[in-house]
Design a protein that fits this description.
By secondary structure, the chain is an alpha+beta fold. The chain contains three helices and four strands, in the order αβααβββ. Helix 1 runs parallel beside helix 3. The two termini are about 25 Å apart. The mean pLDDT is about 80.
Length: about 100
């Protein structure tokens, strides 16, 4: 599974790099990526301080690495929002796992 994920992000990185610089790019997806406060400390250029998760999971690490490589940013993490969560379980648990990358 990890090889497939690595290949996906490698392919996406290559595609983004192949675009002309004047193209405005949106990447939307159900990435199941927890981007945590630890990523803001290690990658403040691309990750804002408005993260819902405390720590970054493997999917989040892949997404942050892509953002750094392509100079793009997860939109929800740069500005405060009243509802930072993007997913809510029926029992009320909330998480920020879906991201819009600009």
């Amino acid at each position: 599974m990890s090889n497939e994920k690595d290949q996906f992000y490698e392919d996406l990185d290559g595609f983004i790099d192949s675009l002309p610089p004047h193209v405005f790019l949106f990447v939307l997806g159900d990435s199941n990526a927890h981007i945590g406060q630890d990523s803001h400390k290690t990658s403040p250029r691309v990750v804002g301080r408005y993260t819902l998760a405390y720590s970054t999971n493997d999917n989040g690490q892949h997404l942050v690495k892509l953002c750094e490589s392509c100079n793009i940013q997860p939109a929800l993490l740069k500005r405060p929002h009243p509802h930072q969560w993007t997913w809510e379980h029926a029992e009320g648990n909330k998480s920020q796992v879906d991201h819009i990358i600009l």
